[in-house]
Write a structure and sequence with these properties.
The chain is an alpha/beta fold. Helices cover about 45% and strands about 15% of the residues. It has 4 domains: about 5-120, 3-Layer(aba) Sandwich (Rossmann fold); about 120-310, 3-Layer(aba) Sandwich (Rossmann fold); about 310-390, Helicase, Ruva Protein, domain 3 (Orthogonal Bundle), CATH 1.10.8.60; about 400-464, Arc Repressor Mutant, subunit A (Orthogonal Bundle), CATH 1.10.10.60.
Length: about 475
């Protein structure tokens, strides 16, 4: 039978927690000071510890050190003043979650219900680290670059807790994939992960979608509807583009996060939810606060543990790994065994990918679709330069000792990229004929001798 320890100098909180824990079938020990808690630990090692942040004889999380060598102990901090600083301090000290006084007893019940899973999380995270070393994968995420290693370290730290997470990154950097990985590595992984794009829901319907509605609550509400908070109960709710949520709804979201209580639209009955919230934005969240797009109090509540996702331009080592993974998926789906020709690999390495991982995935899909059915390699299709982002560098670096042929190749490929893959324009910029350009690209294995290529060569010869 699992054993809990409650450490608090407030008699009411101590009694309420002990009663709930006993009702859930656990044995429980109680203490009002660190000294008493240490004596309880000597009697029996607990599986879960609920401890007040401030005790008469010291800082509550100081007790963590007494149990740190013993695997599987879950720590939950209790505080009368929920602040970003106290939450972060508790997390750094080793807490898995924190409760705000007056304690929400339904949340305590939910924590106890997840207790059997929590002890295995460290082993699961260790297994993921092994998979990263072998295959370059970390949960649903792919990449071994230093920038991503830092992200994995942060996820490993925060995933086993119940704290809110704020993911910040450009569009296409994989924020939803990161949120899924956090969910997979948490004690909630057997429950639902629900992703919501706040910018894709009509402002008129977003409250109903979030909290649900009763039949007849408004025109068209012909039946009762469960909202995302109700459906995600016990699991994880991912709110993408949180700054697109209407300000008036952000107030209600804050209340749910602080109390775990909400009401369906058209109802006066409060409902309890136990949801782990992960939010994301492609904006600078502090700038969004200044612009009135994000409430300051909600930002502080969500930003307990921020994680910045790096753009693909800062992940050079990961481009080929990601591209190969996308190609493997397509090959499996279509029963093929296509590979990238050297010309595609050159372009993958030289392009800056302003559209991030999403742009890379789209490119691989185009290269796969455009390939000939009988060919064992993907097609060499030009990368579509984004009109909304600056072009790649307009300079080419030629290191000392490089051969003239290799320098010539680099110059042609860089110019082709600058011209958005338009070969006529590329030939004009380089001051060579279109036929010469095509011949060079054939030499570089960037083209096949298709009928279209032959027609271009024939057309140029007739023009001459």
């Amino acid at each position: 039978m699992a054993h809990a320890l409650v450490v608090d100098d407030d008699a009411f909180t101590l009694e309420a927690l002990a009663t709930v824990i006993k009702d859930e079938g656990l044995t429980v020990g109680t203490a009002g000071t660190l000294k008493e808690a240490r004596a309880e630990i000597l009697r029996r090692t607990p599986d879960i510890v609920f401890i007040d942040l401030q005790l008469p004889d010291g800082f509550g999380p100081a007790l963590f050190g007494d149990l740190e060598p013993r695997a599987g102990v879950v720590f939950v901090v209790i505080t009368g003043h929920a602040t970003v600083e106290s939450a972060v301090d508790a997390l750094k000290a080793g807490a898995a979650d924190y409760l705000v006084k007056p304690v929400n007893l339904q949340r305590v019940t939910a924590m106890l219900g997840r207790l059997p899973q929590a002890g295995d999380l460290k082993a699961e995270i260790g297994a993921l680290r092994g998979e990263l070393r072998r295959m370059g994968r970390f949960g649903s995420m792919i990449g071994t670059s230093p920038a991503m290693q830092q992200v994995y370290d942060q996820i490993s730290r925060v995933a086993p807790t119940a704290l809110s997470v704020m993911l910040v990154g450009q569009s296409g950097t994989g924020k939803e994939v990161a949120a899924q990985t956090i969910h997979q590595m948490s004690a909630r992984h057997k429950r639902d992960f629900i992703a919501v794009n706040c910018g894709a829901i009509s402002p008129r319907l977003i409250e109903s979608e979030m909290f649900g509605h009763e039949r007849g609550a408004f025109t068209g509400a012909d039946r009762q509807h469960q909202g995302y908070f109700e459906r995600a109960n016990g699991g994880t709710l991912f709110l993408d583009e949180i700054t697109e949520m209407p300000i008036e709804l952000q107030v209600k979201l804050l209340r749910v996060l602080e109390t775990g209580v909400f009401m369906r639209v058209g109802s006066t009955r409060e409902m309890i939810t136990d949801v782990r919230l992960i939010a994301a934005t492609n904006r600078d969240p502090e700038l969004a606060v200044q612009e009135g797009k994000l409430r300051l109090d909600l930002y502080h509540r969500l930003n307990v543990f921020p994680i910045d996702l790096p753009p693909l331009a800062e992940r050079d080592d990961d481009v080929e790994l990601l591209a190969q993974s996308f190609l493997d998926e397509l090959n499996t789906r279509h029963g093929m065994k296509k590979h990238f020709p050297s010309g595609v690999k050159d372009m993958l390495r030289s392009y800056t990918w302003p559209g991030n991982v999403r742009e890379l995935r789209n490119y691989v899909q185009r290269a796969h679709i455009m390939s000939r059915p009988e060919s064992d390699s993907t097609a060499v299709v030009p990368i579509q330069i984004s009109l909304s982002t600056p072009a790649a560098s307009s300079t080419v670096t030629i290191p000392f000792g490089m051969s003239l042929d290799e320098a010539d190749r680099l110059l042609i490929l860089a110019t082709l990229q600058q011209c958005g893959g338009v070969k006529a324009r590329t030939a004009e910029v380089l001051g060579i004929s279109l036929k010469t350009l095509y011949n060079r690209l054939l030499d570089y294995r960037l083209l096949g001798a298709s009928d279209d290529d032959k027609e271009v060569g024939a057309e140029e010869e007739s023009d001459a």
